[in-house]
Design brief:
- This protein is α/β, with parallel strands linked by helices.
- The chain folds into 2 domains: 2-65; 139-514, Alpha-Beta Barrel (TIM Barrel).
- Helices cover 42% and strands 12% of the residues.
- It is built from 21 helices and 15 strands.
- It has helices at 2-23, 29-47, 52-56, 62-68, 71-81, 87-101, 168-181, 194-197, 223-230, 261-267, 287-300, 315-328, 349-354, 359-372, 390-398, 408-413, 436-439, 444-468, 494-497, 505-508, 512-519; strands spanning 121-123, 139-142, 151-154, 156-158, 185-186, 203-207, 235-241, 252-254, 275-277, 306-310, 334-338, 380-384, 403-406, 482-487, 490-493.
- Strands 4-13-12-11-10-7-6-5 form an 8-stranded parallel sheet. A 3-stranded antiparallel sheet has the order 1-14-15.
């Protein structure tokens, strides 16, 4: 209301200045002209639907766009003072904005990367490079031998972000973009809200340890409520969240003040009740229990794909899950590996920075563990954690993934400017807030196209890179195709740099580097066998 009052005040002052100019002194013309300009700009800003900043901050918001015209100089100012996010975030944010808005995004004067820096990664193009095929983007099948309703998922999808953390308008825009672009939208552990359902986009329903959307009054899993929601046509897969990269080993707390009627409806909790998400599940407490829970959810959902998401911590614990899968001869349809570099507005900084395995290491470990246990060809693997560009998709597939998910860049696509006020409910662009006046700034009918276009152009970029490498498909991407600089004079392929297991080797003769973890893993407990 303040913004409307301020603009109304400008309109009144402008009218008063013109009245005084006509009836009192011509000197008032000097005030009337600029006040009229400001009032007209304010009215336009409040009514336009393209720029969230201007809808929430009429007139004043133009300062941000003025600064964009001298962006290199402003960015250098920010870099020198270590503000406005990391260099990675600034670079990715600009790229996403360009792709979402349809800008070309070319930069003059070549690469801005230090190609001699240790850790620099690249792929090799080929003199047999092919034109990018004029075919629809490839998809990946979610659905193992026990799944009767398999789902073909896109190479890049919306990663887990809950309603409650994001505004209803942000959820709507993400889902509408997914519906138009033919990719999946992970609900996050906050369950399925009315905003997820409005546009009919494909959903991955994520079940966290609080079982939002299918819980009893005391916070346990409720099969009957699960059947009701899992049966929705929109729900294409169910993902059990074991841990989250941004805050592995932590649950969560939703203050009662944030549990309004809409949030309560989505999560299946009382209005105004403070809800605690425990750090672990109560539906199972052993690796065998997890495998059985996956099978139960698949049965209750009438054969839809069911898998789980985790950030790797203990190698032994994941190997225990592999042993449980082998013992039950029942596989999850997919596993999503979440990297510790993921972001959140609801976790301690120490956890974000220092707990959990980064995506590169975690993804390669999961891939190798499944290969070594003879399970890789039966389980689809997803990667989530700072996936932003076409080359990111290519890199993750080289490292062992089949498909990817992105959260941060999808937020950029709907207008996030990294104001870093997610936890305060005062997001200036209406993305991470439950304040209806602030959320109003995010216009779904505009931002849904940006979500669709960002995803399409990013996948298109990945397809072009694969063609430039002289390859016919993403299936031909292997660790040999990805290079890393290990010192100023030497680069190595991922195949030479890391250990890669042969199929079934853990069942026969585990390598020395795997023997201790494999031997101490038990399908009956997450504790080690001493």
């Amino acid at each position: 209301m303040i913004r409307w009052g301020a603009v109304a005040g400008l309109v009144v002052l402008a009218a008063l200045s013109w009245a005084l100019a006509l009836g009192s002194s011509p000197w008032w013309w000097g005030a009337g002209a600029p006040l009229t300009f400001l009032a007209g700009t304010g009215v336009h800003d409040l009514l336009q639907r393209r720029h969230s900043i201007l809808r929430n901050y009429p007139v004043l918001g133009h300062a941000r766009f003025m600064l964009e015209h001298i962006r290199p100089e402003i960015q250098q100012y920010f870099i020198e003072r270590n503000i406005d996010g990391t260099p990675y975030d600034r670079e990715v944010r600009d790229l996403v904005y360009d792709r979402a808005k349809g800008n070309h995004g070319e930069e003059p004067f070549g690469t801005q990367r230090d190609v001699n820096a240790i850790g620099y990664e690249f792929v090799a193009h080929s003199l047999r490079a092919r034109p990018k095929p004029d075919t629809p983007p490839p998809t990946v099948r979610l659905g193992g031998p026990e799944c009767t309703q398999p789902y073909d998922i896109a190479l890049l999808n919306v990663s887990a972000m809950s309603f409650g953390s994001l505004s209803g308008n942000a959820i709507e825009a993400l889902n509408a973009g997914a519906a138009m672009g033919g990719f999946a939208h992970d609900t996050g552990e906050g369950s399925i809200s009315r905003y997820h359902r409005k546009h009919g986009g494909d959903l991955i329903w994520e079940l966290g340890s609080a079982y939002f959307g299918c819980r009893t009054e005391d916070g346990r899993f409720d099969p009957e409520r699960f059947v009701e929601r899992a049966g929705l046509d929109q729900v294409k897969a169910i993902s059990i969240k074991l841990s989250q990269g941004a805050k592995p080993g932590l649950g969560g707390l939703l203050p009662g003040a944030k549990v309004n009627a809409e949030v309560a409806e989505a999560r299946g909790v009382p209005v105004g009740a403070t809800i605690v998400s425990p750090p672990v599940h109560n539906a199972f407490d052993t690796p065998l229990g997890l495998v059985d829970f996956v099978a139960d959810l698949r049965r209750l959902s009438a054969g839809k794909p069911v898998g789980f998401k985790l950030c790797i911590g203990s190698r032994r614990e994941f190997l225990a899950i592999c042993k449980a899968i082998l013992e039950r001869d029942s596989v999850p349809d997919f596993i999503i590996v979440d990297g510790s570099e993921g972001g959140t507005g609801a976790g301690p900084v120490e956890f974000e920075d220092h707990v959990g395995m980064p995506l590169t290491e975690g993804l390669m470990f999961v891939h190798n563990a499944l290969v070594g246990a003879g399970l890789r060809d039966r389980i689809t693997v997803g990667a989530s954690g700072k996936v932003a560009t076409g080359i990111d998709i290519v890199r993750r597939i080289c490292q062992g993934a089949d498909f990817t998910l992105a959260a941060r860049t999808m937020m950029f696509a709907v207008g996030c400017i990294q104001a870093q006020t997610c936890h305060t409910n005062t997001c200036p662009v209406g993305v991470a807030t439950q304040d209806p006046w602030r959320a109003r700034a995010l216009v779904v009918e505009d931002k849904k196209f940006r979500v669709r276009d960002y995803q399409a152009r990013t996948v298109n970029s990945a397809m072009q890179i694969v063609s430039s490498m002289g390859l016919d498909s993403f299936e031909q991407l292997t660790p040999r195709k990805l290079f890393r600089r290990v010192d100023p004079q030497v680069t190595q392929t991922y195949r030479d740099l890391f250990e890669w297991l042969e199929p079934g080797v853990l069942l026969a003769t585990p390598p020395p580097t795997w023997l201790r973890d494999w031997a101490s893993a038990s399908s009956r407990t997450f504790d080690p066998i001493e």
